[in-house]
Every structure is written in structure tokens, then in C-alpha cells.
Amino acid sequence: MNCQVALAEWRLPVQGTEALRLARAVGADGVQLDFGGPGRGEWLDTPGRVDALRAEAQSTGVRLLAVAGNHLNDVGLTSRAARPVLERLLDAAAALAVPLVFVPSFRRSAIDSAAAFDRTAEVLGWAAADAAARGLVLASENVLTGKQARTLVERVASPAFRLVLDTFNPVEAGLSCRELVAELGEFLADQVHLKDGPPAVGATPPLGTGTGRLDDTLEALREQQVPVRALVLENDYRDGDRARMLADLHWARQRTRSFVTTRGGNEG
């Protein structure tokens, strides 16, 4: 299978089945969905929504690649409110038959102390076990150093656990994505988020024009033979500027060649 180019639903001007239709219209291969929540749109497990998304994916040919639990940034991954959200998130992902679920660790979920690290590892440990039982891979998106991230993987201790690589968040935190790829390649999820910096004025910079050194990161992924199933555009297109989206899709598509796309079945 060739490396795919996909869109992140939470960065689009539309949601749900309309996001899949937009992906088809612009020529994207797949979509990562958001679980939703207050201020983030309709819950993914709202009755009838999973069936509608599956039908639309079948109709459009757009693949459902992952579900993101972005709402956990609002409630805190280690809070009491997180467990029921995580369980619903995993159930919805299993019903959609996506291969990957990921949870971010920013804002209220930030891993900003030793205690937060310990609590996060504990939560991800049981969540990874629950994901494996559902045939899913669970991943964490964070800005830990390579050493810290490797320790997190060791603490979670599950073959169903991965790390999501974002091509700019670590740069913004003072880290090198190339070095992270070299240190963590074997633990990375096979879907990579592409963005290239914060907006100078207005829109996020087109891929390849910002400060994220994207080509260096993608070259490191090739050098380390990290399996990359999908490059997922995470620039902000919520203003509806389709020309920017098309330009970024073209940029990413040109760089999908020569990627290893499988790891041997862990993220089928």
C-alpha cells in the first residue's frame, strides 16, 4: 500500500459526513476523526453517527484512519472524568473499525511534572490494554524528550501502544523532530501529523514554508525506515480556504514516495 495523504477533521470547516465529502472533493485518501465534546462538535458516539460515517466512507472511498480524543485536553487525561470518555472513545473507534486511537497530552493533560508523568503512564497503561482487547492501537501525542518518551513506552509496556509524531509541536517546545525520529522510530504510530509552524498573521504557513524543517523530519522517517501509513495535514483550514488545502495536499503527495508503510501487522 502506498503512503496516504489525509485530513484532520478538527482542522476543517465541516465535520462528520461532510468532512468525508470534502476529503473526496479535494482528493485526500482518508480522514482522522475527532471524538467531539463541548466546544468541539457532536459526540462521535451520538446514536446513528457511527453508522452514517461508515456508510459515507463506503460511498466516497475515503478511509477512516483514526479517532482523536482531543476533548481530553479539556478535562485532563488523569482526571476522574477521563476514564468514561476514554472508554467511549475506544468503543466508538472499534465500531468504526479504525486502526488507531490517540490521546493528546496538552493543556489540562500536560505531562509537566514527575507526578503527572506517573499518572499519565498509569492511565495509558490500562487504556492500551483496553485498546488491544478491541483490536486497536492506542497512541499518545506529547512533547516529551526522546528519553522521557521512551520511558513512557516502557512504563505502559504494551505492544498496542505508540507515540504520535507531530512535525511542529516538538519544535515549538525546543526539540528536534529529526532527533526524536532517530530515538523513537520503533515506537512511532504510522500516521504522522504535518504542520509547519504557528501563524505569523492569519493562516498557518503552507507546508514547507514555516520553521518546522518538515523535509528534514520526513527524510529522517525514511532513513530510519519508520512505517508511515498516512501523512495527516494538521494545518488550520477552518476558514474554508480550499486553495491552501489543495496546495498542502499537493506538497504532501509529492513526498509520499519511498516510505515504508507497514511494521508487520501491529497497525493493520
Automatic annotation (TrEMBL):
Residue intervals passing through the bilayer: none
UniProt xrefs under InterPro entries: IolE/XylAMocC-like, Xyl_isomerase-like_sf, Xyl_isomerase-like_TIM-brl
Stored Pfam families: AP_endonuc_2 (PF01261)
Residue span, Xylose isomerase-like TIM barrel domain: 20-253
Name of the protein this chain belongs to: Xylose isomerase-like TIM barrel domain-containing protein
Organism annotation: Streptomyces cyaneochromogenes
